[in-house]
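step=predict obj=Restriction modification system DNA specificity domain-containing protein n=441
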Amino acid sequence: MSLPRYPEYKDSGVEWLGEVPAHWEVSQSRRMFKVRSEPAHADDQMLTASQKYGVLPQAEFVLREGRRVVEVIQGIESLKHVEPDDFIISMRSFQGGIEWCRLRGSTSFHYVMLTPVKWVWPAFFAHLLKSAPYIQALRRTTDLIRDGQELRFSNFAQVPLPVVPVDEQKEIAAFLDRETAKIDALVAEQEKLLTLLAEKRQATISRAVTKGLDPDVPMKDSGVEWLGEVPAHWEVGNLKRFAEVIDCKHHTVEFLDDGLPIVSIRELRDNRIDLSNAKLTSPIEWEFLREGRIPQQGDLIFCRNASVGAVGYVDEEQLPFCMGQDVCLIRPQTKSRFMHFQVTCRAVTNQIEALLVGATIRRANVEEIRNLVVTWLPTLEQEAIADFLTAETARLDALTAEATRAIALLKERRTALVSAAVTGKIDVRNTLLPLQEACHA
């Protein structure tokens, strides 16, 4: 069963709205909203307008994000007062729409506060002003929008808005609040599953490369506090004992539209090397970058900057290529994938993170990488562990991909449902539908 359409439609004369129900009207947005220019009050709490959480107290935003925002050092005269049911145009509104404020407080002078004048039920416009077709229309008001630039009221005023009977706005808003909450709950479940799968993947790798696969094998003290016990026949030492670590050439080359591939950080994706969009350079520069450091099958290309743990295993079909900057080459004594899993495990990435704490430039030097503490074991056992981890991570990655696809589908359905309801393409008046029917609208 699909959601019904309205009995009769007419051309709205507005591109982003298309046809609307015959009893709807269209108005210039400046007739429905005005700008609030009131300076902040002395007792106002500081608010943050975010695409992720909406409008919330700045202190709460800091707690949720685990990071600080730019502190306002000017006096309150540089801030703007905002009232409940105002809407806030922020610097990110061209990406995610305009935020509905349900709090009293103050916020940045960079923002534009919109106050409803007439024909506006705020809960309805909270959905409309963040709907996909409206955001696209808002973007079309300027071709100069880039990160950091500001949207103005003049941009907002260029996009006409539908005039919907207020009682009908209330019904549409109630329907969307209910149905999007259901979809959001399903998304949250899938996102929790993704977190659990990532934790399971990391725990599986870490245990296998530090404890092995045999639960009954005799153990010994590794001599490293954070590593604990390891199988008695394993060795523990610096990476340089078991692998050659070769730095990249610290040389900037000219990139060309046609040339030979360079592997840098951007080519390290999902524990593999992706050459599909690799930068290219001339044969002369390419050969220079390869001098004394020609990648071979079984090598690892390892990121040594802030993208801790990004590493790619070199397969035969990816060759030849050269290394760019901010990576190094690790060439283990064996060709198994054991070392590939080892350098991505928490025991190793934690060491690198510790090296980067307090560093102005978050980059480990090659000597520090050579001194990373790792385990080493007989070749056949390395291969057995690598085979086990290849199969197990493939299984977990398949589940992760399935959950990721489910999230994408749910978000697409949410976007389509909101867009259809606020532009009148579906009639949700007096409608109570289960989620699966709403999603197929």
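step=describe
The longest strand covers residues 327-332.
step=end
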